[in-house]
Amino acid sequence: MDAILSLVHHDIGGRGMTHLLDGPRDRAHFSEAIEALSRLPPGSDVAILTGFPCLLDYTPPTETDGLGGACALIHALHVIGRHRAHILTDEVNAVVLKSCIEAAAVAATVLHSFPPANEWTHATQVKLEALYSTMGAYVAIERAGAAEDGRYYTMRARDMTAIVAPLDQCFAYAKSHGIPTIAIGDGGNELGMGNVSAATKAKVRNGETIAAKLGCDHLIVACISDWGAYALCAGLALRHRNSDALLTRETVVAIANAMIAAGARDGILGCQDTFVDGLPLVETLNLVHAMRHCVNNMPLVTRLVGKTGSHEWPTQGFHIDSRSPQTAWSQPHIQFVKARDLASLPSPVFAERYLAVELSIQQLDELEMALMASPLPIFLFNLRVGSDDAATNINATIARLRSSHKEAHIGLAGVSLDVLQAVHTSAPCSIDVVTQSRQQDLLQVATFCQRNGIAMMLEHAAADTADLQTYRNDRTLYFVDTHIATHAA
């Protein structure tokens, strides 16, 4: 459980959310939230409150954060207990959430939308109160929470009250009647974040104005609320020993595409693209990939990002655990080797692996001679780009490799964004993979790869144990469930 929670406890957005964290408290609340949902009788009704209409200059004003996580929880609840989810949101978010629910393709989901307080009627109140006692639990995911003055604010302290439904009363009812309340937030202005209102006011920008007043029983603070919801789903999957409780990568992408088609936008950038809190979808895909490793109790050495599609990475191969040689994990993996080492590698090493050859542009002749002497199954040619390598030289090398090895993938290692753009513009579809090691423009490179259908491999920062460090030093990268497409040549 700690490994899952640690994946969402780093300030990836640089917004200061670490000030809201408390290790012992957060671990306890996370475990308690999982247990609260696990104790529900089969077929229970669960209310999920979500929707943060912070994009006041757009119609709809719905941000992307929270929506995918809500759908992920709908799926997890259905898998572990055949529970029925009730989504409660604002009227302005209804169209987007309806599209998300349809894309998630989970049965037994009901969408309820409510008007803002200035349009609230007696009939509206009766409709909401009819749901109160029927719910076995209430979960808020990136749901706007009222501040001390009763109004709803964005992180920039813009007033959203005119379009936000006053659904905080659901939590107030639940808390007074012993119904579990779980809240997931990342900024302090979300429903249920009253537990950390003091820290929000003291440490978060605009905190004195925006801090949510109402707390909850079990609070999950995450760097991105969506990711906190995925962590909760992974915790449920681990608790019930059922990895099917996690959404597949393809479904995550389908939901993201659906919300964008319905008009949702990134809450920070304002762009109508599959970003969440300023990060491209590929980062969420990597998170789901990492959590699946945690649920299955497998080490994670790398992550692979790119667009989904029909062109998949290899799905065969074995890794033999040196601590337990009789145990083989059936998972794809690629062994990286230097071009100069090809001739000295024993043949058995390729029996159950795919080979990726690392080389510089200057080593191409050396590589071709080695391949002629001992033909080997090459999955990927990984060109390590130097600071002096011009795009024209890179393209010429790619063309030579394409002509002699039509089935192999072409990768660029350590490439800067400028060089990557130049190569792709002059020879589109020539690059299949980018192996990224530098950090200075990682987000920009990841975004470019996503938009242009180029797969991307990254070493996982959490791979710091002795065993995983050994694997990294051996230049052997392991991929599990990586149905991520490379760009077809």
Task: List its salient traits.
single chain; 489 residues; alpha/beta; inorganic pyrophosphatase (n-terminal core); TIM Barrel; 2 domains; 8-stranded mixed beta sheet; 18% strand; disordered C terminus; D-glutamate cyclase-like C-terminal domain-containing protein; GLUCM_C
Structural summary, described in words:
The structure is a single chain. This protein is an alpha/beta fold and 489 residues long. It has 2 domains: 1-296, inorganic pyrophosphatase (n-terminal core) (Alpha-Beta Complex), CATH 3.90.1640; 303-469, TIM Barrel, CATH 3.20.20.100. The protein is 36% helix and 18% strand. It has helices at residues 2-6, 23-38, 67-81, 94-104, 122-132, 168-176, 197-203, 207-210, 225-239, 249-261, 281-295, 364-373, 391-404, 417-426, 442-452, 466-473; strands spanning 45-51, 84-90, 109-114, 137-143, 181-185, 218-221, 275-276, 279-280, 302-305, 318-320, 328-330, 333-338, 354-359, 378-384, 409-413, 433-436, 455-459, 476-478. The strands form 4 sheets. An 8-stranded mixed β-sheet has the order 9-17-16-15-14-13-12-18. Helix 3 (67-81) packs across helix 10 (249-261) and helix 10 (249-261) packs antiparallel against helix 11. The longest helix has 16 residues, at 23-38. Residues 305-333, 348-352 and 459-489 have low confidence and may be disordered.
